[in-house]
Design goal:
By secondary structure, this protein is an alpha/beta fold. It folds into 2 domains: 148 residues, Medium-chain alcohol dehydrogenases, catalytic domain (Quinone Oxidoreductase, Chain A, domain 1, Alpha-Beta Complex), CATH 3.90.180; 134 residues, Rossmann fold. It is built from 7 helices and 15 strands. The protein is globular, with a radius of gyration of 20 Å. The relative contact order is 0.16.
Length: 322
């Protein structure tokens, strides 16, 4: 089989290796499509740590950092009763980068790390279930807080996670949904899944979204950036709940004027959130295919990452069999 390996931040090889065999509790997945994760792929491109204590080492682990993949179960190991060979599945949990990843024609996963997905949808519609699971964890938390239905919801950062968040806010019954991003093309794209309006957060928005209580227009907000400026912008403009999804790399100021705002974080991966995302996909309330702006053979990996770098792509779907 063919598998990708990064040999430096900007170089890679496509290697021929033996197809792995699933062990006890594992499944062999034939990968039909795998989507970029801009966080991991761009941090690898720049050899920049993803989080405190992380460091890339080259040559990097085979198939990594690919983890948002969909395909078909080819074989199962001892003790696996579900899924079965022939089932269409997506990976919903990244098991870490100490094992081969999904930039490959085949990958071995723990059986519990894949989830069955609808048969009648294109690969792009189910490849990024893992990201849907991640964002879904935030929205399941907000739902238990009664912080979505009938609310005016803001989403900061209209990359892949933000575009999913807009759709989930709609699915959960938000009365109005607003997006914020620096890039006009992303603001325009966010209007398609039903945003009531999209704005450049650098502009003076005091008329539309006043910062002085009790006039704050946003009731619940989700930050999908992780920057100090974006979080504090939402804290100033939100009256009740601000949820953090973006990877935190610096401290935020929770000022006295924010004393009425609840700030909540991300609770991590869980199967229930994957099931939540797949259920929304099945009901037509979450369209992951709309995030994929380019399809390329895996052999053109650097071209795809160049598109992410230049912000011409939202997500690139790599096809390992072309």
């Amino acid at each position: 089989m063919k598998i990708f390996q990064a040999t430096s931040p900007t170089d890679f090889e496509i290697l021929d290796v033996e197809i792995p065999r699933p062990g006890p509790g594992e499944v062999l997945m034939r990968i039909n499509a795998v989507s970029t994760c801009p966080q991991w792929d761009l941090h690898l491109r720049h050899n920049a740590p993803m989080f405190v204590g992380h460091q890339f080492k080259f040559p990097y682990m085979l198939g990594q950092p690919g983890h948002e993949a969909t395909g078909v179960i080819e074989a199962v190991g001892e003790g696996v009763k579900d899924p079965k060979p022939g089932d269409r599945v997506s990976a919903w949990r990244d098991p870490g980068h100490h094992v081969p990843g999904c930039y490959a024609q085949y990958v071995v996963h723990r059986a519990e790390n894949v989830i069955r997905v609808p048969e009648d949808l294109p690969d792009e519609a189910v490849a990024s279930v893992e990201l849907g699971m991640c964002v879904g964890t935030v929205f399941r938390m907000l739902r238990t807080m009664n912080a979505l239905k009938g609310r005016r919801v803001g989403v900061m950062g209209l990359g892949p996670a933000g575009l999913i968040a807009l759709q989930m806010a709609r699915a959960e019954g938000a009365s109005e949904v607003y997006g914020f991003d620096l890039l006009p093309q992303r603001r325009e794209l966010a209007l398609k899944p039903g945003a009531n309006g999209c704005f450049d957060p650098r502009e003076n928005l005091d008329e539309e979204f006043p910062t002085a209580p009790p006039k704050r227009r946003l009731e619940t907000s989700v930050d999908c950036v992780g920057a100090k400026a974006t979080v504090e912008n939402l804290l100033d403009r939100t009256s009740d709940v601000v949820a953090l999804f973006g990877v935190q790399r610096e401290g935020y100021t929770f000022a006295p004027r924010h004393h009425r705002v609840t700030l909540c974080g991300y609770k991590g991966h869980c199967r229930e959130s994957a099931e939540y995302a797949v259920d929304l996909i099945r009901k037509g309330k979450l369209n992951l295919a709309s995030l994929v702006t380019h399809r390329l053979p895996l052999s053109r990996y650097n071209e795809g990452i160049d598109l992410l770098e230049s912000q011409e792509a939202i997500k690139v779907c790599f096809l390992p069999w072309e």
